Amino acid sequence: MKSKKTLAFDIFMPLVIVIALIILISLYLALYEKDAAFRDNPIGKRQFNLLKVYLKAESILFYIEQSAKYALQQAIYDLAQSGGISEIEFSDAEIFAGYSCGRYNDNYVWYELSKDQDGKYLDYSCFDEKSLDTHLIYYLNKNLNEYLQVHPSNILLNNYNYEVRGNLEIIGKAIEPLKLDIKKQEIPEEIRTTDLLREPVKIVKESETTIEGLKDFTGTPLCAKGSQCILTDEALKLLIKAQERAAQKGLTLEVYSAYRSYYKQKALWEGRTPERYAYRYENPAVRKKYVSDPDECGNNCPHFTAKVVDVKLRGKTTGMMTSNDWLLLHKIMTEAGWVRYANEPWHFECCGTDRYARAKQQGVDIIA
Amino acid sequence: MRQYFQIANSRRGMGFVKLFAILAFWMMVLVFYVFLKIFIGNTTYKVTGVVSGIEGYESLLDVLKTSVDINIQQITIAELIALVRHDEEKKTFLEKELVKLMDDVYGTSNCVIMCISNEKIKGSGCGAIGVYQCSINYVTIPGYDKNPIEVSFDPDAQPLSSPIAP
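Predict the joint structure of the above. Result:
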């Protein structure tokens, strides 16, 4: 018969072994589960992806470089064709402040000859050679956009600040850096090709802006190609709501401007984008109707809040949008909870911006 | 518990516990090993095999940036490719330059293939017969007409099927 001590020992030791075994197995299983994602991928896949993304970025930069070369050649040709002046579209209400002598037979008048009271000829030069840089850059940017638009990657358009040095050199400095998602390379193809319109949130990633909690939906069907689209979570949800309404009518919304950085807003204000606000509206007081001065509005600039979208219907440019299209867009957006800025049929705000708050206070869905 | 420590603290008990502990430890290791073998099996890790694709991609960028002399002017291969789209006469010159470049860099022991929008240009190392496929790692370059051109490069192309003997 075993003593009590031996009996206790006989029970205790196997118990220790069993407990240790259970702990070890549980640990292993936990690690096995955690490691599953890594185990299913080959060793070095992430490193190779990193290298692949680097090479992809190199190839995109090369594409931009080559495109800039061709775009400049084309820009010089376009500028010569248009008589040294870049043509921008004006509405009937606008006054062309940039060129005083007007046109004759569809060509810009460079010199005006007139006679004074004594019958003596007076010549007046209308063409300001200093403005050549501005016109050349306008065509350069326009052509470059056309090149970048057709690249399979989403390269941001109107993303360069140009500086002309001497007679031969044009430097383009990117406003926003080229961003490529390393992780996205690891997403299986079937996820990327899913119908993203149904659940655009799926591929929305956290934004890298200084404002916390923003969602970046650049590259999704809701964001125009070549545009960077960032909104707050609340605003994005409201946009998706609007898209659901649009889808019922067989339409797709396309955001072409949402959150803007200070530099982007500054470029707009100073007329360094194809819209050339500074050129069209020399008077800052008038210009403010169409674009905010970032140094004046500070954090209250609507687009800084990431609760504002410039939106249109997919498949149409803003120029192609008819008054019925704008009305339809207005209906879709306001029904989803957005408020429209009266001066711009494409500009909608939500979620507590100054305009939004004023509109809600007044019980309207359109406000100046 | 108190009783166990009483045994362990005695001299005889100490030796016994040590021996038992060592045996138990090895037994546990053995059981654990057998358990893993039976239920989980081998954990093998695959090593990625995408090196060649990356090498081709990197080489392609270098090839595209290479300058060639044409009509006393220096242009890059990428520009020459874009030019050929509008000037077919330059095609022979482009092919000659590319074959020379591929042979100089990779020798003639490997089959080097460059594809420009699915049109294959083979280095001297490739056999006259045999079906080759273009690499899927392509680089997009701009054309003068604003239409992009896809170019790919394979420094070690293998024929898809061996030629059938008559």
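Residues 91-95, 186-208 of chain A have pLDDT under 50 and may be disordered.
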